[in-house]
Amino acid sequence: MKSIFYALLASVVFTACQGNKENAATYTPRVLTATEKFNYNPETRGDTLALINAVGDKKEATELFNVKYMDTVIQIQTNPDDKASANGKFSSAEYVNTQKTTLLVQIADNSGLQAPVYLITINDKKPEVISLYRASKGAEDKKYTKGITKVGRDGYVVNNDFFVTNVNAKVFLIKRQNEDERIQGDFMVKSPDKQTLAFLCAKSFFQVHYPTGKTYNQPLKTIPTATGNELFAWVTQNFKWDRTKDGISFLIPNDNDRIVDLKEFKK
């Protein structure tokens, strides 16, 4: 028997799992449109999300995870128009707050495309799912849609469109260089104060100060051909971090004689 509940813009379908008496709940995610914090404080010991190993297909070589709230396994309806798209297996799952009430997850998907990424969180003792997806028309989207990229201990870049902080589960929309397309470049380095993200694009370093949305595009005189550690070494040898009068750090050429044009800074 199925019962449908509507709460926090998510439709939830509960079904009894045969054989183990566990319930499954399917959630339709809402879309994140602005910076938001998901640092729910549990009132009881069980008011958290549990991460457990999932039983995957024998052909699966990677470890899969399920997420449970109380006695219920959480599934995500990836297509809002198709109930059959519900999926409760995740190829990646990371807690992003110390209370363990928010998880950053990526759907287990064998389609060959980059699988969608979501936040599963608790809000007023109820699970909620948030989609970390923004439509894009970039010519190189397939190349730069990489799912979840860990940025040291500070957080995660999601498909060049979101930054998810660790510890307190705050999600920022990353300002795009062109509104209709996600940043067409690879995340390269972050500033010493951990608030500016630099992306290596075809002809420039496009940089975003994610707390304010201010950006700076540093053209490249030389296009690097190095990769991996050699590329990182090239960056450190040829660039340095400099602060604006507002205290924002941006990456500039390691040339003390360079005059910075303030018109290059965008809000």
Give me the secondary-structure topology:
Blueprint: E1 3-7, E2 10-16, E3 23-27, E4 30-31, E5 36-37, E6 49-53, E7 65-69, E8 72-77, E9 86-87, E10 90-95, E11 102-107, E12 117-123, E13 126-131, H1 141-144, E14 148-151, E15 155-158, E16 162-165, E17 170-173, E18 185-190, E19 196-201, E20 204-209, E21 214-219, H2 228-238, E22 239-243, E23 249-253, E24 265-266
How would you describe this protein?
- This protein is mainly beta and 267 residues long.
- It contains two helices and 24 strands.
- 33% of the residues are buried.
Brief digest:
By secondary structure, this protein is mainly beta. The chain has helices at residues 141-144, 228-238, and strands spanning 3-7, 10-16, 23-27, 30-31, 36-37, 49-53, 65-69, 72-77, 86-87, 90-95, 102-107, 117-123, 126-131, 148-151, 155-158, 162-165, 170-173, 185-190, 196-201, 204-209, 214-219, 239-243, 249-253, 265-266. Strands 1, 2, 3, 6, 7, 8 and 9 form a seven-stranded mixed sheet that branches. The chain has a five-stranded mixed sheet with strand order 4-13-12-11-10, with no helix packed on it.
